Amino acid sequence: xxxxxxxxxxxxxxxxxxxxxxxxxxxxxxxxxxxxxxxxxxxxxxxxxxxxxxxxxxxxxxxxxxxxxxxxxxxxxxxxxxxxxxxxxxxxxxxxxxxxxxxxxxxxxxxxxxxxxxxxxxxxxxxxxxxxxxxxxxxxxxxxxxxxxxxxxxxxxxxxxxxxxxxxxxxxxxxxxxxxxxxxxxxxxxxxxxxxxxxxxxxxxxxxxxxxxxxxxxxxxxxxxxxxxxxxxxxxxxxxxxxxxxxxxxxxxxxxxxxxxxxxxxxxxxxxxxxxxxx
Length: 279
Ligand code: SF4
Ligand code: SF4
Ligand code: FES
What we know:
The chain is about 20% helix and about 20% strand. The protein has about 280 residues and is an alpha+beta fold.
């Protein structure tokens, strides 16, 4: 174990832990945007800045080392984190913060960054070619979470980031339409997207990643997928008795928040007029 101090509190973490792990271990809710616990950290958004041994660093990509002295909340850190998020938000159209319940919009609300901060244009367009995964390019902050999810969890390697600087945006790796790419429709990229740039049928943009919004606005029933023998845990979202979406259960012991296209999207048969129903 590695022993260090966070805001003066002693904490012991695994030897492969990051400063983000250590900060969370003492109960500090450090903001993150490009980070997803299920994925290799990227350290690209600068939202999780902390001070360690006098220097400022991104907590999600910095290993915790013995006797580190970590600070999370001095005035300069709060300003740097606020400015990092504000800069990201300012490049987006206002609808990214106004009307989308996402990790980003929640974080902006938490940091007192108003929707009017978002002054970007809507000019990059959409890709709605795929039946289950829709892309609103103007909401993409190029965090790369979807790219890593597709490669590291699904193993499809269907996505990449294209463009340079502020023009960077996610794209299917083939360069064409999403529906013509190697996407297998698992929905993992939608699930991890922190802005609502990726969305799926049946849920508001951002809601898949921001599951608390789903739980507040609809009934959720936990069940086991019946398509094959793996036994993935699923959360069936219903509204007025109708199934609107199926989300893989983050706590599912065998699928840990992931599912295949069948379990996640092939639920239309429930409403088929020819479906066999109990007498
Ligand atoms: S739906 Fe799955 S396979 Fe398709 S792009 Fe997203 S993560 Fe990759
Ligand atoms: S589509 Fe979403 S997850 Fe992918 S890079 Fe853009 S903001 Fe990040
Ligand atoms: S969450 Fe650490 S740099 Fe993005």
